[in-house]
Every structure is written in C-alpha cells, then in structure tokens.
Amino acid sequence: DQYLPKRFVRLWCYRYGASRPINGYSNHQLDSIAHDLHEWRLSAVGTEGFNKVEVTLGRVQNPGRMHEVLADLPVSVVVTTNYDQLMERALAQRRGAPVVIARDSDLDDVFCGPSIERHGRPVVVKLHGCLSDPDTIVLARDDYVGYAEQHQRMVDCLHQLLATQSFLFVGFSLTDPNFREIHRSTRIGQG
Fold first, then answer.
1. In sequence order, what are the beta bridge partners of 100?
2. How confident is the model at residue 47 (pLDDT cuts 50, 70, 90)?
3. Among 80, 103, 139, 142, which residue has the least CB neighbours within 10 Å?
4. Which of 104, 70, 100 lies closest to 85, judged by CA?
5. Does residue 28 carry a catalytic annotation?
C-alpha cells in the first residue's frame, strides 16, 4: 500500500466495483474496465493532495515564494526530483534562463562536477524527468529499478556533484531509492 499505483488500483477498483481476480472477467468486461480507466479523470476536491497533482501535471504555472527564495540563493546547480518547471521559471525570472538537464544526452552541453560553475548560467538537474519531455519521467517501479542502468551519465554527474559540491536539501525526504543508492556509492568511492 505504500506505492501509489497499488493504492490507486485499490481505490479505483473499490469505487467502480472491479474487485474480482482478472480471470473472473470476460474479454468484453475487461475492455469496458480498460475504457473506463482510460476515461477516468481527476477532479478538484480542495485537498492538499489535489494541489500536488495540479503542480505535478503542470497546471500551476507561477513559482511560489519558496521557489523565488531558492532562486535567489547563490548556487550554480539545483538538483530536483520534481517534474514541474516552477524552479526553472523562478530562476529565469531572477537570474536568467537555466540550463535544464532532464536526460543523459543533455549532459553533452554541460560540464559536471566542479567545472559546472564555469557554465555561466544556473543548472537544473531533473533526476526524475520533466513535464516538457514526458519520455524522461521516472514514475513506475520499473523506472526506478532500472534507473542506474538507463541513466548512467546522470548517475555519474550526481556522483561528481555529491563529491564536490555542498547540498541543501529542501522538500526532499532522502528516501528516494535512486538517490540513496547514488549517495551510498559516492560515500564508498570516497573511502
């Protein structure tokens, strides 16, 4: 129950009466369930969770005060697991358009590690992808499990940053499995 997909499926099945094992449905019933699921939409109910969904889906366009405060900090690199583009917008308003790294190939234009500061613009490293490039989004369990193999250059960049830069963690629980593994291997590599 700690994983969103499992909780979502349980809630959806409860709400729409789909509670039998999959082999208990005919092909027609499964098609109907698939259609209903495809058409299912979130609707506002005024909860904190809905606000997070709105941000995640990109419906919140303007950075908040916290984004502005963070954008004013004298840092060259922001590492985030958020999909939204609020930090990038805050940086653009305060310090100029940042360089955004959401896929390994984006690292071709940016030096990682100590030399990243020479780039002249703030850099936003989006470990779990960006809404502007849906193919980069890390969301499903398989995405997390295969992260290190599929994003080796991003992992190497984060290793270098962890070894050479100071970090301020804001709104980040440090329980992300990819980050924990990268942090652990960085510590081991440093002896």
1. 124
2. very low
3. 142
4. 100
5. no
Annotated catalytic residue, options 28, 35, 67, 128: 128
C-alpha to C-alpha distance for 180 and 183, rounded to whole angstroms: 5
70 against 6, higher pLDDT: 70
Express each pLDDT in 63-116 by its tens digit: 888 889 999 998 888 888 888 889 999 999 999 999 899 999 888 766 665 555
C-alpha 18/C-alpha 167 separation (Å) is: 46
> What is the spatial distance between Cα 39 and Cα 2, in angstroms, rounded to a whole number?
25
pLDDT at 61 over 70: yes
DSSP string of 67-135, one letter each residue? HHHHHHSS-SEEEE---SSHHHHHHHHHH-PPEEE-SGGGGGGS--GGGGGGGSS-EEEETT-BTTBGG
Question: Which residue in this structure is represented by tokens 């310090």?
Answer: 95
